Every structure is written in structure tokens, then in C-alpha cells.
Amino acid sequence: MSPVTRLATWQLRARFAAGLSAMYAAEVPAYTTLVTVSTQVNADYAARHGDAERLGSLRRVTAERHGAIRVGTPAELAAVADLFAAFGMEPVGCYDLRSARPPIPVVSTAFRPIGADELARNPFRVFTSMLATGDSRFFEAGLRHRVQTFLARRQLFDPALLARARVIAADGGCDAAAADAFVAGAVAAFTLSREPIDKCWYEELSRVSAVAADIAGVGSTHVNHLTPRVLDIDELYRRMTGCGITMIDTIQGPPRTDGPPLLLRQTSFRALAEPRLFRGNDGRIVEGSLRVRFGEVEARGVALTPRGRERYDTVMAHADPAAVWGDYFPSTDAELAAQGLAYYRGGDPSAPIVYEDFLPASAAGIFRSNLDRDSRAGEDAGDASGYDAEWMAGAIGRDIHDPYALYEAQAKEAAA
Ligand code: OOG
Ligand code: NI
Predict the structure, then answer these.
(1) Into which family does the record put it (predicted)?
(2) What percent helix, strand, coil does the chain show, rounded to 5?
């Protein structure tokens, strides 16, 4: 009898990330350009900088991706949590993008591996947003009811896939023979659907918010971007522009400085319009197009402590953060560590702890830069939805990890 080979959840996670990447590459041509250019930028950077691997091995960084998905209801978010648990991805942090200016009508979390060893094996993470239908500033009672009715009828995931995911999560992995089918099923759930879209419904939701239409105007969900990681995002920006791809105007997050990279810098571009089928009021199917998917790239730096983060938020409120940066942040790891602004393993300034999460202002900026129109929100009525981290934990029946507690735990480990 041949021995049964087991795959651990991290191996399934690596296959899931690779499967999504292959799917996205086949569907969004500019993504392939982005990955090619990112890989070159990383190799060139590593050739010129002896310490290129201080923020993660080149193998990790080159394979590293984050995805973004959007769902409509707490039940759909709970299903996502069950599915991702099979890949060792747990919810970390709660991002309320309704407080961005202008607001985006979603509340979000990030599903990711949480242990240092798991992150080193494969750090795949997915920024997951839920439409805030309970917030009456965006959805008046009549519309909310119709949106919720529409969402209650759809099924994002095959119940058999979710049942399988629960078993795999409980067992910590599965037999190799069963892995391909499971991963393929999970990837397929995030592929753009070719089903005709109800034109009238989609347009009505678009008038409230493009995000509402993208989430609740269709019968399924999809990966709307898949983001590679680069070691030099300014260089990446220049090279992509050189390839004829129009990037958004800015790189979101901290400005480029002479000091160690901090937190997260991101930039994006809009993907091409893709042909889609629409069903008109008369039942006729017509060809149309939608621009719902886009490209994004990111550079990750050292994680900031709450004290460092407070300073970061203060400096970013300036008109020109780069001009005053030096008044707020020292330019060496040793000083960042000594002043308790950033996390280092065992307090050793040569052992930075990478920021593994997202930034709400950047996330809202990324959402917005890829929309045709901002969301319309009534200002008068208050928000009685109650959406916050505690609400989210209850809705999905799982703890939402506090990112600072995770960094704190890593910082207490001895430096390698
Ligand atoms: C998510 C946008 C946020 C990021 O990298 O900050 C995000 C979305 O567009 O659904 O992915
Ligand atoms: Ni993103």
C-alpha cells in the first residue's frame, strides 16, 4: 500500500494563491505585465542591495500576493471565513471605510496567516469587504430590503466546498489526492461570472455606489485585484508607466524617505473594460462591458507600534508629509527601536518585523481610484448599523485578531 501524502494548510494556501494568480493572469493581461515587471524590479534590487532580504526572503517576496474580494452579507462573510480557515487564513483587524472621506459603504477585515513561521511559508492574504447595507446613510429602508432580498437568494459557494473546508480546517490539512479538486473549487468561486447581469438592477445600484453595484448587482463574487509585492515601488511605478500602463497619480501610504521603509506603500492602475452580458427589461440579452477589475502593487516595510502609528497618522495629516517627515520619524532602525516606534524581534534593530496588514486611508484610496463615481451618502440620518470589530466577530463566529497583539507577540520572540 502506498503511503498517503498529506498536505498541510500552508501548502494548500500556497496552491490557492498560485491558482488564483494563474486564473487572474489568464483573464487580466495587464496583471501578467505587472508580475513580470515586479519580478525584474525585485531581482535588480536584490543584485544591488546586500540586505535585500531583511524584510523577507526573495522567495517569499516574489511569491507574495494579496487579493481583494467583496461580499454582501454577514452570512457570506462567515462562509468566506470558513473557506479561508482551510488555508490557515484568519481574520485580522477591522477596517471601517465608511469613515474615509468620501466614504466607501463597506466594513472590511483581512484574512491571513498569523504566525511568523506560517507567514514565512506563504503569506497570502485577502482583504475582504462586506457591503454596509445596514447603514441607512447609504441604503434607505426600501432599497435595503430589496438588496437584502437579492443577496439572500444567491449562493456564493457550493455547500459541499464549504463542508470540505470545515473538515480540512479541523484536520489541519488533507490528503494530496483530494487537494487539487478542493483548491480548484475555491479558485473557481472567485472567477468572474459570465452569467448575464440584470441591467436595470445594476444601474440602479450604480447610482447609489459603484461598490454596491459591484457587490450586490451580480450573482457571484470575484477577485477584483491580486497584488504582487515589490522591493522598490518607485522604480516599479516608472517601469510600468514606461510599458504604457497608466498608473493612478500617487503612491499611497508613507512617502519615500531615506530611512527604513515603514508600513505599506501601494499604487494601482485600472484594468481594461471587459465584455459582459446584460439582460434588459424585455428579457433580451445584450453585450456590454464593465471595468470592475484592476491592478495593484505594494511595498511592505516595518510594522509600527501604536505610538509609531499615531505619529504616522499625524504626519500624514500634513499637506506635504515628505517635507516634514524628519520631524516625526528618525532615519535608522536603531532609533526607531529605541524610541518604541516600530517592532523588532527581541528588540534587535537588525530584525525588523514586517507590516502584514493594510491601511484604511490607502484602502479607501484604492477603492476610489478605480470607481467612476463616489458613493452618495445622506448626511442627516445617524448610523445605527452597529458595525465594528465586535459586531464582525459575532457575525462570523470567530475572534477578529488585533494586529498589534500579533506584532507584540512576534517582538517578544528572540531574534533569530
Ligand atoms: C479593496 C481595496 C483595499 C488594499 O490593498 O488596500 C485593498 C477592494 O478594492 O475591494 O485591497
Ligand atoms: Ni489591495
Answers:
(1) Belongs to the 2-oxoadipate dioxygenase/decarboxylase family.
(2) 45, 20, 35
Q: CA torsion, points 384, 390, 392, 398, in degrees to nearest 10?
A: -160
Given a contact cutoff of 8 angstroms between Cβ atoms, the answer to whether 304 and 262 are in contact is yes
Spatial CA neighbour of 257 closest among 316, 176, 194: 316
Question: Which of 24, 366, 369, 372 is the best mutation target for the ligand 1 pocket, counting ligand atoms within 8 Å of the beta carbon and taking the most?
Answer: 366
User: Could you tell me if 98 and 404 are in contact, meaning their C-beta atoms sit under 8 angstroms apart?
Assistant: no
Q: How far apart are CA 179 and CA 175, in angstroms?
A: 6
Average pLDDT over residues 17-32: 94
Nearest ligand to the CA of 109 is 1
- Cα separation, 119 vs 166, in Å, equals 22
Q: Grid coordinates in use for 318?
A: 500634513
C-alpha cell at 13: 494556501
CA of 110 to the centre of ligand 1 (A): 10
Asked if residues 190 and 20 have their Cβ atoms less than 8 Å apart, the reply is: yes
pTM of the model: 0.96
| pLDDT score of 322 more than 80 | yes
Higher per-residue pLDDT: 370 or 310: 310
Instruction: Give me the domains of the chain, ranges plus CATH numbers.
Output: 6-195+205-251+365-412 (3.10.180.80)
* 298 CA → ligand 2 middle, Å: 8
- Which residues neighbour 34 within 8 Å (Cβ) at sequence distance 6 or greater? 228, 240, 245, 295, 297
Asked if residue 336 lies in contact with residue 372, where contact means CB atoms within 8 angstroms, the answer is no
Task: Tell me the pLDDT tens digit for each residue of 238-250.
Answer: 999 998 888 988 8
**CA 127 / ligand 2 centre spacing (Å):** 7
Average pLDDT score, the chain: 93
**In this prediction, what percent of the chain has a pLDDT beyond 70?**
96
Instruction: Work out the burial of residue 39: count CB atoms within 10 Å of its CB; fewer than 13 is exposed, 13-18 middle, 19 or more buried.
Output: middle
Q: Residue 172, by phi and psi: left (phi above 0), alpha (psi -120 to 50) or beta?
A: left
Gap between the Cα atoms of 42 and 27, Å rounded: 24
Task: Please report the DSSP string for 82-118 in residue order.
Answer: HHHHTTT-EEEEEEEGGGSSS--SEEEEEEE--SHHH
Cell of 116: 511568523
